[in-house]
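Side project, low priority. Logging it here so it doesn't get lost.
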Amino acid sequence: MLQNAPGSNGPLRIMHVLRAPVGGLFRHVLDLSSEQIARGHQVGVIADSLTGGEMAERQLAALSPRLDLGLMRLPIHRLPHPSDVTALLAINRRLNKMRPDVVHGHGSKGGLFARSSGLMSGRASPIRVYTPHGGSLNYRNGSLSHKLFMATEQLLSYRTDALLFESAFIAGRFETFVGHPHHLARIIPNGISEAELEPVAPQADAADLLYVGEFRSAKGLDTLIDALALLAEKNIRPKTLLVGDGPERAALEARARRAGVASLLSVKSSMPARAAFALGKVMVVPSRFESLPYIVLEAAGARIPLVATNVGGMSEIFGPYKDRLIAADDPAILADALRQALDEPPQEQRDNAGRLAEFVAARFSISTMVDQILQGYRDAIAARAIK
C-alpha cells in the first residue's frame, strides 16, 4: 500500500480513526485533517456514529466534501463490546478499498482499530500510527480494567510503526505502564492557530465562573460543586455557567441541589470555545485527569483567567507559571483558589493572563504540530522500507 518512496515529499493518503467525535481528541483530528488537506494530502476519517450530537454533525458535514478518502461512521462503543468484531471487519474493508499510506489511530479505541488493521498484509500494510490522547492510560493504576487495557496496549505496541504523543505526561505513562516503544516515538504537542491568540473579552452579563467541556467524572465537576458549597457558607455566591454536556449531567444537577447551590448554576449546550469564553469572567478547569487539553490552550491563548488543576500535561501548558496550578480533587483548595481569582485586581488578572498567552503562543503552534506529525509519518515509512 505504500505508494510513496521512502523519504519522498509527495502527497500521502492518510486515514484517521477515532471513536467519539467530541472533545479535544475530535478537535485534534479536525485540525490535523484540515491542515493535511491544505498541504495536498488525501485524507479520510472513520468515527463512531453513536456520539457527537449536532455540533459534530455540522463539523463533519463541513469537512466531508474535502475528504478524498471519505467519511465513514459506524457504531463504536467506548468499552469492549461484541460489536467491536463487526466494526473491525468493516474498517478493514474500508482500508482495503481506500489503500492509505498511513492509518492514524486516535485514542484507545481508534488506536485498537488502526493497529489491528491489515493483520495478514505484512509489509504491504499501511504505516500504523497511534496517538493515545490519555484514554486507557488514565485508568486507575492497579485496577482490573487498567491491567487488561495495558496488556492490550503491550500487544498492540508490536504493530505500531509510530507513537506520536501529545504530551510528555502521556509519553511517561506509556513508558511506565506499557513499556519502552518498539519503534519511532515522539512527543508532538497540540497546537492552536493565530486566530485563537486573539483576546476574548467577557460580555457585560458574563457569569463569574465558567466551565467548558464534558460532564463526566474525569473532569471533576463534582469538586467544583462542593467548592461552591464551601464558598456559599462564607456568603460568597459566584454565578457559575457550565457549557457542554455528558453522561453525568443529571447527577451533577442533583448534587448541586443537595449542596444548596443549584441557584448559582446554569447550563448551556456545547458551542464553539471562543463563543463560550465570552460568557464567563474566570474559567475553571477542575479536572482529575487530562492529557494536553485543547480547551486550556484555547483559553490561555484568548487571555481568559484560569483556575486549573495540576494534572496530566497541564504543567506543560503553564510552563514557567505552573505554580498557579492547584491540587486536584480537593474542594477546599479549589474554593480558596476561586475566591482569590474573584478578588484579584483586574490589571493583575490581565497581566497574568497575558504572560501565559505569550508562552502558549511561542510553544503550541498548529503549523509546527502538523509539520512534525507529517515528518513522523515519513520517517516511519522510511524505517519500514529498510527492515
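Brief comment: The longest strand covers residues 207-214.
Revisit when time allows.
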